[in-house]
């Protein structure tokens, strides 16, 4: 999915570059936010040549793109009076993105919360949306828990990271890196201990084998000496007889 999204983003970046005016740029943004395989928009949002929209009547399309990058369906409906009206494919896309946002904040999503956030009226409609529009495309994986009336999230595709959350994400990654480094040190120490135990075991085995060989040698020597004594006794006995 990541490779496909990269290709789609490159396609729309190219289309914004060749767009000749603000109206053409607005059309590209509508097309991008309707595309079935595109779910991250920050790379497009911050393109320098898109900023020319700010000084035109089409600036609302730049605002609309912000909601697709970082917002939810309820965010849009709360500001719909100042934004372009969405076409059905855009509505679907923003509701899918809303599910991704919710899935990133909790592993258990109550049906009531989901129905309110994506504006569906009953559980059957919600389950159909989750299965057909979210699970089949690979946006989320999880379990529909009919008994508890919730969706249990196992995996969700990541959305764009808001600039405000960048610091916390960097801190989270730094903490993860620190824990990983500490774990690596522990693993290296464990490897050293395992190697030491292995060397000790090799020495112990060698010592046992040497002791065993010495016992065998002593047994052979004792048997040879016993045979020699028996031979000398038989020889003496024959001598006395003659």
Structure write-up:
The chain is mainly α and 242 residues long. It is 69% helix and 7% strand. It has helices spanning 2-18, 22-34, 42-45, 59-70, 73-78, 88-105, 111-118, 123-135, 166-241; strands spanning 108-110, 140-145, 150-156. A hairpin with a 4-residue loop joins strand 2 (140-145) and strand 3 (150-156).
Main pleated-sheet profile = 3 strands, antiparallel
Mean pLDDT: 87
Q: Strand order, main sheet: write it out.
A: 1-3-2
Classify the secondary structure makeup into a structural class: mainly alpha
- Please report which band the strand proportion falls in: under 5%, 5-15%, 15-25%, 25-35%, 35-45% or over 45%: 5-15%
Radius of gyration over all CA atoms, rounded: 38 Å
Shape: elongated
Give the helix tally. Answer: 9
Order of helices and strands: HHHHHHEHHEEH
Helix content: 55-70%
Q: What is the CA-CA span between the terminal residues? A: 106 Å
What are the segments in which pLDDT stays under 50 over at least 5 consecutive residues? none
What's the total number of strands? 3
């Amino acid at each position: 999915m990541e490779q496909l999204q990269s290709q789609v983003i490159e396609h729309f970046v190219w289309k914004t570059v060749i767009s000749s005016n603000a109206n053409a740029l607005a059309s590209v943004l509508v097309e991008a936010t309707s595309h079935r395989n595109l779910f991250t928009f920050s790379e497009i949002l911050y393109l320098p040549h898109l900023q020319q929209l700010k000084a035109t009547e089409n600036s609302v399309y730049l605002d609309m793109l912000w909601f697709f990058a970082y917002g939810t369906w309820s965010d849009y409906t709360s500001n719909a009076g100042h934004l372009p009206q969405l076409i059905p494919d855009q509505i679907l896309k923003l509701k899918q993105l809303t599910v991704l946002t919710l899935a990133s904040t909790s592993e258990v999503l109550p049906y009531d919360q989901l129905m309110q956030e994506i504006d569906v009226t009953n559980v059957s409609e919600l389950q159909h949306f989750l299965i057909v529009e979210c699970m089949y495309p690979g946006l989320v994986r999880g379990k529909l828990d009919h008994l508890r009336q919730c969706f249990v999230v196992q995996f969700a595709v990541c959305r764009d990271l808001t600039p405000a959350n960048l610091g916390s994400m960097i801190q989270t990654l730094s903490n993860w890196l620190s824990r990983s480094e500490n774990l690596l040190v522990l693993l290296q120490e464990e490897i050293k201990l395992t190697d030491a135990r292995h060397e000790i075991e090799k020495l112990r085995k060698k010592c046992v084998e040497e002791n065993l060989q010495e016992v065998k040698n002593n047994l052979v020597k004792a048997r040879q000496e016993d045979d020699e004594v028996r031979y000398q006794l038989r020889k003496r006995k024959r001598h006395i007889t003659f």
